[in-house]
Amino acid sequence: MNLLPRSCGLSLLCAGLLAASGHALADGFTPQKTLESVFELEGNAPWSSPYDGSLTFSALGSKFATANGHGYRNELKIGKNNRRPIEQTHEHFAATITPTLSNGAKTIVAQYHVDGLETILKVYVQDTEDRGLLDGKDNNGVFDIVVKILGTDGVDAPTALGTIRSGESFDLDIRFDNGVATASAKTAANGSIRTAATRIKGDKRNIYFKFGDYLQALDPATNGFTSSPAKWDEYYRLHHVNSDSIRFTRTIFERE
């Protein structure tokens, strides 16, 4: 796959994208200019300089807040003009990810979002209590990697993909093809784990991919969701979540 739209033809723009795609294969990562032509930035610029396929995100460093968010974020998201419906989305994302996080932190490093508020795929890195995961214990320095995919039954089903500690790396691979999603991770502790191919619940709206650091927070008084940055700050303070960095290397994004 590459970053050429299906209606590309032989225009100068498409010729440029074709050259960029070939460059990505040669260097082992997607060029910055190609990513910038597809994605919009939320928060601080993550690019390495010179760009070598590495991006570093920090939600606490950016403190970027959205109206319906549940914590600060620093992400790249596909721009509105580049979004497609589920059945027309054929995309592949891969990277080596190195989270450096405080014990007890929980962040989303990649997700597919529907135009609106719903999500259909989310990849978490979390040191929080969650039964059924490989560790699932709160605040012990072991971070579960878990993906949740919304199937046709409407269930946001989780799959445990491995465990790491802060500063350790894992390989992430996500494929979305004509309404069917798969995700896999490779960790030193657990090897390679892949989800079953999951057909996504149908939706006629456009969808879009995001990746980076979306640091989760709750209302410290009720432990429920809140869109108040002041309450996020208090939640982070009470849970000693005071540093975060999510580094992506060998970053590849391809689409047909």
UniProtKB/TrEMBL annotation:
<dbReference type="InterPro" id="IPR013320">
    <property type="entry name" value="ConA-like_dom_sf"/>
</dbReference>
<protein>
    <submittedName>
        <fullName>Polysaccharide lyase family 7 protein</fullName>
    </submittedName>
</protein>
<dbReference type="Pfam" id="PF08787">
    <property type="entry name" value="Alginate_lyase2"/>
</dbReference>
<keyword id="KW-0732">Signal</keyword>
<feature type="domain" description="Alginate lyase 2">
    <location>
        <begin position="51"/>
        <end position="232"/>
    </location>
</feature>
<dbReference type="InterPro" id="IPR014895">
    <property type="entry name" value="Alginate_lyase_2"/>
</dbReference>
<feature type="signal peptide">
    <location>
        <begin position="1"/>
        <end position="26"/>
    </location>
</feature>
<keyword id="KW-0456">Lyase</keyword>
<dbReference type="GO" id="GO:0016829">
    <property type="term" value="F:lyase activity"/>
</dbReference>
